[in-house]
Amino acid sequence: MKRFNFSKFMLIFGLMFIYLPMLILVIYSFNASKLVTVWGGWSIKWYVGLLDNTQLMGSVLRSLEIACYTAIAAVALGTLAAFVLTRVTRFKGRTLFGGLVTAPLVMPEVITGLSLLLLFVAMAQLIGWPQERGIVTIWIAHTTFCAAYVAVVVSARLRELDLSIEEAAMDLGAKPFKVFFLITIPMIAPSLAAGGMMSFALSLDDLVLASFVSGPGSTTLPMEVFSAVRLGVKPEINAVASLILLAVSLVTFLVWYFGRKAEANRKRAIQEAMDQTANESWQQPAAATA
Amino acid sequence: MKMFGRTLLTLSLMGAMVMGAQANDKVLRVYNWSDYIAPDTVKKFEDETGIRVTYDVFDSNETLEARLLAGKSGYDIVVPSNSFLAKQIKAGVYQTLDKSKLPNWKNLNPVLLKNASASDPDNAHAFPYMWGSIGIGFNPAKVKEVLGANAPTNSWDLLFKPENAEKLKACGISFLDSPTEMLPAALHYLGYPVNDKDKAHIAEAEALFMKIRPYVAYFHSSKYISDLANGNICVAVGYSGDVLQAKARAVESGNKVVIDYSIPKEGAGSFYDMVAIPRDAANVDNAYLFMDFLMRPDIIAEVTNSIGYSNANAAATPLVDEAIRNEPGSYPSQVVMATLYAVPDQPIATQRIMTRGWTRVKLGK
Amino acid sequence: MRTFNQQFLRLVPSGRKLVIGIPFIWLFLFFMLPFFLVMKISFSEAALSIPPYSEIYTFAEQKFQLLLDIGNYTLLGEDELYLSAYLGSLKVAALSTLMCLVIGFPMAYAITKTGKETQNVLLLLIMMPTWTAILIRVYAWMGILSNNGLLNGFLMWTGLTDHPIEILNTNTAVYIGVVYAYLPFMVLPLYANLVKHDNSLLEAAQDLGSSNFNNFWKITVPLAKNGIIAGCMLVFIPVVGEFVIPELLGGPETLMIGRVLWQEFFNNRDWPVASALAVVMLLILIVPILLFNRSQAKEMEARG
Hints:
The complex is a heterotrimer.
Chain A: H1 6-28, H2 45-52, H3 54-87, H4 94-106, H5 109-126, H6 135-160, H7 163-171, H8 176-205, H9 208-213, H10 221-230, H11 235-289
Helix pairs in contact in A: 1-11, 2-11, 3-6, 3-8, 4-6, 6-8, 7-8
Chain B: H1 2-20, E1 27-33, H2 41-49, E2 52-58, H3 61-70, E3 77-78, H4 82-90, H5 110-116, E4 126-138, H6 140-147, H7 157-160, H8 162-168, E5 173-175, H9 179-189, H10 199-212, E6 218-219, H11 224-230, E7 235-239, H12 240-253, E8 260-262, E9 269-276, H13 284-294, H14 297-307, E10 310-311, H15 322-325, H16 334-339, E11 341-342, H17 348-363
Parallel strand pairs in B: 1-2, 1-3, 5-6, 5-7, 9-11
Antiparallel strand pairs in B: 4-7, 4-8, 4-9, 4-10
Chain C: H1 2-42, E1 57-60, E2 63-66, H2 71-78, H3 80-112, H4 116-127, H5 134-145, H6 150-158, H7 171-194, H8 199-207, H9 212-223, H10 225-240, H11 244-249, H12 257-266, H13 271-303
Antiparallel strand pairs in C: 1-2
Helix pairs in contact in C: 1-13, 2-13, 3-7, 3-10, 5-7, 7-10, 8-9, 10-13, 12-13
Protein name (chain A): Putrescine/spermidine ABC transporter permease
GO biological process, one term (chain A): transmembrane transport
GO cellular component, one term (chain A): plasma membrane
């Protein structure tokens, strides 16, 4: 009954399609030749060179900083939005709210970027803020569209949750906010973490929004890479890219490892508990007969 | 309730901190082209003056212009090319320079100042930092292989004559992706003034490109540097400094590719990257200090030695590396200088026609 | 005790307002308001000033005048460039969505057929690339597809061709890049949907003698409808406005609206026309966006 399995073949093909280019990129980051298409032997000089490239390293740090702020703010904002979507059932403008929350997910970046820039320009004219565009404006732009992702992820989890625990706590006289922080939040923690990581990644990834709303001293890594790529491929970019790939795969591995460990622990705990009760119930009759 | 208040407070505090970190008297924000300065120029300035410099780079005039026209760009020094500068001056982007604050102005090359004044009457708003011509970069061996020894590499005929372009297709042709620089070259070749506003003439220039369009590999304003050096293409219309950079890269990689640069005898466009101070700059005094610093012969000669572009500083020429100084593409003779024209600034309506025509050329229909 | 309760009750609505208010105000301020601005500017005229457009209203001598310039919209209609850019974007988006579906569906299906542990690993493997910058992944393709890149080297080595095939800077490269970048967004919602399917239906059908292929079309596909719609829209909608991929991998003949918009904004410094382009793009995308929202809502209902 063993025969050619089309879907399995596609899975392997798809994964190869996804990973082969990255593998090639990593190999070429060790290329000694300055011309990226010619193989000139193995070398780590581009990695060493990176350390001296303050401009590039500066943009890496800046991007990480923005991504951190974005992840925090997007999780806070997105969770609030998700909470409103799932728990506050009736209020004026609920449909509009629902639309507003999901729309940034699919809005083409050029439109969001252009419109935010126009907003900041208009605000600077009207109320004098923001005095200048920079990290703060990029942060606002990233938070807005990342919050949408968080809201979708978290509201899916909130819908799955058993309402009865929250209701029971309320019945016992706990204030809604206390319930939210002591009961709801811990229960949705995994999706908060997922949303936070997603926001972090999306913020690190974004070129278009940052290009529109950035200002002095706020060139992000993608902007740096884009302009380097436009001005001709440089071997240093291969090295940066490989480092990013390494960091991401490390994080992915850790997430998987700890997730698995937590799962295993949970299973073991359940197993132990079951064994114990089984033991007890087995011993009891044994004791009784003795 | 309290929790939310606290969250909000922290958030706003975070914002204030980020903004507050930038407020400081001894700062200067510079926005220059990428790879367009010597590695230690900024550091030297910081050491001499104690001013902390935020140095950002852009890769196209358009990027810079969008920032400037949005208002409150936040930069104190910007470096647009002359044709863009002209429009931006009209839009009221720049301050008029107080030349008494620029004692080193005397070092600038008067011929180049005059050329640049086509975009900025009396050089009232900016001074030329680097300049170059828009000529032909080519791979002599490959061109010879295709067209024979008598290939007109010193003339626009090399590309604008379809029979030549057709043969060169085999080894690859690239053009700059810039209607404001390429169409005037065609207008000039056809014998019309470079700032011609006549629609029919512009259409004729467009038709000239259309005829050779099938033979063009791509239109791009920077990719040709590595492609020339790699041997991917054999003829590129490009900026003098970039072509010479390609030449150096080819030598460095040891791949036996030789690159040459020629200013066509019919005449070619020239561009001037101009240093200017935006009207809304916050640190004007520091900006003047930096401008004057850049006019110092020793400083600007170092920049030229590092990036290969020719500066507009007459006093600096003796300090420039001999290899660059004696390169006719970088430091052309008086005779060749006389054939150069500054890339013209066209009214918006004409520019729109040109951009649109250029899009048609690129699409090939 | 009673007064405390009353105080508490009085507090509740304000807390509720706050919970609704914070995200609402944020989204209104930074998402909806900017949109109205884009709309406003699309009715103004380009000008050489800071900012580079004219104000659409004037207030002088106690007269408030509103001037709506529809010239930008008529320009979009008159010049076939814009129409072909919209059509080009829609074509690229539609075709690459289809390709993502054809590759992604079997992948998602195959994942659901593996063990629970393997499923998690495979999902992570598919999600991981989306956490690295898209720019870097597109950049990797630039090196592979170029004339003296690896793919051409490989093809020439195998003797399939004796001269390099031009792939980089053509539409083919754009399709490769788009499918590559968006494939995970197709696989994930499909998996989320497929994994919930009850296998007993399929088994029952098999018992009744239905072929695998038949099962697939008659049972799996209809059941996965919401997942398919969600996945397709997650690919289709952003691709219509895609800028980075066509800019880096596409050639001069790659006409896509994201690129044209960028060009109008940056190269022609014509913010009003760029705004008009954005407004029209959004009008085109409203139907797919609504479709996506509906499928999301249905998916949630099915889950909850």
